[in-house]
Structures are given as structure tokens and as C-alpha cells.
Design a protein that fits this description.
Order of helices and strands: EEEEEEH
Largest sheet: 6 strands, antiparallel, barrel
CATH class: Mainly Beta
Helix content: 10-25%
Strand content: 35-45%
Distance between the termini: 21 Å
CATH superfamily: Trypsin-like serine proteases
Oligomer: single chain
Shape: globular
CATH topology: Thrombin, subunit H
Number of helices: 1
Number of domains: 1
Strand order of the largest sheet: 1-2-3-6-5-4
Structural class: mainly beta
Number of strands: 6
């Protein structure tokens, strides 16, 4: 995943969802570019939420298909809001087995903002 600054007018950024309001069973969509076959969207549900602290998800688990190449793609809720960044799968075979993980969007955004502040040479 990369952070880009694009000088183009009239772009609409994705709305950021509140991952603290996610519940097990919520519908989500994993967007990515798996195995270099092109853009894809897969639908699933939130399978589990681990907590770092009170009401703050640490990891979002989903059964939406996340395969190699989908890491860094968006995990979107049913309202079209970004709630996570696809990060990994649990797989003994290396193939989709229904257990994927995403980093909560707020954590990823905060990390990229900090990285941008510390490396900006403008």
C-alpha cells in the first residue's frame, strides 16, 4: 500500500467508517487485485473482532475472500465506507480458506499520517 498525493480536481475521497460500530455478522466487501488477475470484489461478513482496548477493534476478521495480492486493498462496509485495510489470511495451503484479516481503517490512517509527517521533505 502507498500514500499518494494527487493534484487532480473533483476527486471524491472514500468516506471513513467507524470500525468501533462493527458487529460480528455485518456485511463487508474486500476489494483488491488478487493473484494479478485484475480488480475484484468479494462479499463476506465480519467473523470476529479482537479488542485492543474498550470498544476499539485490534483486528477485523472476515470470511470475504482475501487472497495473495489483496493485501492493502479496502475492506468496505455495506454503506460504502472504508472500515479496514486487508492485511492477511490464515491459510495452511496458501489459498483462500475463509479466514481473512484487516487492520482497522483508523489505525492504518494514523500510521500513514505519522509516516508522512516524519518523512516529508517538502
Amino acid at each position: 500500500m502507498a500514500v499518494l498525493h494527487i493534484n487532480i480536481d473533483n476527486l471524491t475521497p472514500i468516506q471513513i467508517g467507524d470500525e468501533t460500530s462493527l458487529d460480528v455478522g455485518d456485511i463487508v466487501f474486500a476489494i483488491g487485485y488478487p493473484r494479478n488477475i485484475g480488480q475484484s470484489v468479494s462479499q463476506g461478513i465480519i467473523s470476529a473482532l479482537t479488542k485492543n482496548s474498550e470498544n476499539t477493534p485490534g483486528i477485523i476478521q472476515t470470511d470475504a475472500a482475501i487472497n495473495p495480492g489483496n493485501s492493502g486493498g479496502a475492506l468496505i462496509n455495506s454503506r460504502g465506507e472504508l472500515v479496514g485495510i486487508n492485511s492477511s489470511i490464515f491459510s495452511e495451503s496458501g489459498n483462500f480458506e475463509g479466514i481473512g484479516f484487516a487492520t482497522p481503517a483508523s489505525y492504518a490512517i494514523a500510521a500513514f499520517q505519522e509516516m508522512a509527517r516524519s518523512s516529508y521533505r517538502g
